[in-house]
Amino acid sequence: MTIAFAPSTVAARSSETRAMSFAFLAQIILILNSFVMLYPVVVMVFSAFKSTGEIFEHPFALPDFTQVQNFARVLGETSMPTYFLNSIVVTGVSILLILLLGTMAGYAVARYESRTNTVVLLFFLAGLMLPLKLAVIPLFILLRDLSLLDSRWSLIVTYTAIGLPSAVFIMAGFLRSLPSELEDAARIDGASEPRIMWSVMLPLARPPMAIAAIQNAVPIWNDFFFPLVFIQTDSAKTLPQGLTTFMGEYTTDWGMLFAGLTIAAAPITLLYIALSRQFIQGMTAGAVK
Amino acid sequence: MPVSPKQARTLKHRSWVAFLVIPPIVFMSLFVVYPILSAFAYAFYEWRGLARGDFVGLANFKDVLFGPTMGPVVWNAFLHNVYALIALMIIQNGGGFLLAWLLYKEPFGFRFHRVAVFVPVVLSTIIVGFLWKLFLNPNFGLVNQALYSVGLDALAKPWLGDSSTALGALILANAWHFVGFPTLVYLAGMQRIPSEIIEAARLDGTTEWQLLKNVVWPLVAPSTTILFTLLFIGAFNWFEIPYVMVGLDGSPFGSTDVLGLVFYRTAFGNQSASIQNFGQGSALATILFLFIVVFASLLTLWLRRREIQF
């Protein structure tokens, strides 16, 4: 920012007013935009505290926040808690497998010189580019042959396969940047290779692991396509797919519908608000260098 | 034969590296490489339900692109994907660029606005789709209620039931969902521009518009490359928002049908016609796959050419 000391000339004054009016306009656009982004979410939460009649008659009114019977019914009458649990298990196990396998491959490529390293990296690069969604038919048949279809494992292996390449690249990129003096010192002390990896190198690699975890956790938690194809049994459904079942059962009970949507949206939204910097960094990691 | 200590060391070393590399590679081969290669192969066979029949050459491809039943449906859907791509490039990526520029100046409350614009991005597409479906309900939806309350009754419409507005409504719902992503990617791109360049341009007395057009836009070209390529891939894989908001048939009257819905109907059937055709489904997936790979690569190469090193 520059502060004009003697804005006596007309030109300086007009450019200053122009900058002021621009800043004013920018502020209005940003406020309007944030309103458009947040208001639908706010209405969703407000409506969850209303009866269907209240939603229809006073859609914009503030609700009575002590009226929690919609939430009680969603949690008590429907399978929503099961869907919720399944989403946690599927996302959690997938992320653990992605980090485990991704760190193994990333570590080998980054820390050991080998002629095959380029081949291994190209192999994972191909996996990064190919949309597995379009190979869903053979994947469906493969999972059926492995008797994994219609179980949470069908989703876990699919998500792990989709998330693995990006984890390999994030981990390899970071591990390569660590100085080799660290390993050499441990090697002279007689530490074995697994011990060097586990006790010396990996404790330093927590930040890229967090990035890889967030980058994958949000799309996995939110995914709908693979459960739609793989899962039939109600008890194995994840939240997004279960939500479609739920929405189909209560089509006319809007209070229930908004309560269901609110419950489904709450965990990720709250986590995002608490950790917005890490979320933004993780989710844009593939597009920002 | 006794193993020398050096051999033992390299053998041990090699097996350790193999232990690290082989499980991830086996996993990827089984669940990514094998299905993708099979997807191509499946397209050349006739399928009876889940059982593979005879080799039929390019018959499935011909049926999908030019057959009397599939052909018109596929091309109609393709057109809608193209509309969505163009509209989202302008609204979502263009809007994101402008919002990023406003945030870049760090005005009052920019931290709040930055967090707010990304809230819909973290929500599940299913939640976003259902939410907007409820808001666009002709009788009780928020959108028409808002129009009634300000006296614009004439503008109220059954947005998703009218074939002239349904696709537009889906596109806007998608833009609401994702505009935060290009915004923050562009913002990161702008923050990488050396501030001397922008200050120098300011001192030269360039107007805001000239600065944006001649300085900022060319310098965020790397962000543009990746955002447009991702949008291209996303637009031709579009599935969740249409599925949730208008159903598998792209109602009303196929006015919102997109290739993702056609693929799903063909491969896995729907309520009205529960015929699964894995052959035609695989052919459609293969065509879509090649189309995306070829055009996304060309798009990337073309956009890369306009990137400037600084």
UniProtKB/TrEMBL annotation, chain B:
PANTHER family with a match to the protein in the record = ABC TRANSPORTER PERMEASE PROTEIN, INNER MEMBRANE ABC TRANSPORTER PERMEASE PROTEIN YCJO
Stored Pfam families? BPD_transp_1
Q: What is this protein called?
A: Sugar ABC transporter permease
In which domain of life is the source organism classified?
Bacteria
Report if keyword Coiled coil is assigned.
no
Keywords from the named record? Cell membrane, Membrane, Transmembrane, Transmembrane helix, Transport
**Cross-referenced CDD domains:** TM_PBP2 (cd06261)
InterPro entries attached to this UniProt entry: ABC_transporter_permease, MetI-like, MetI-like_sf
Q: Where is the ABC transmembrane type-1 domain?
A: 74-299
| Chain segments annotated as transmembrane | 16-45, 82-103, 115-135, 166-188, 215-239, 283-303
Record bears the keyword Cell inner membrane? no
The entry's family comment says: Belongs to the binding-protein-dependent transport system permease family.
Write down the membrane topology. Multi-pass membrane protein
Q: Where in the cell is it found?
A: Cell membrane
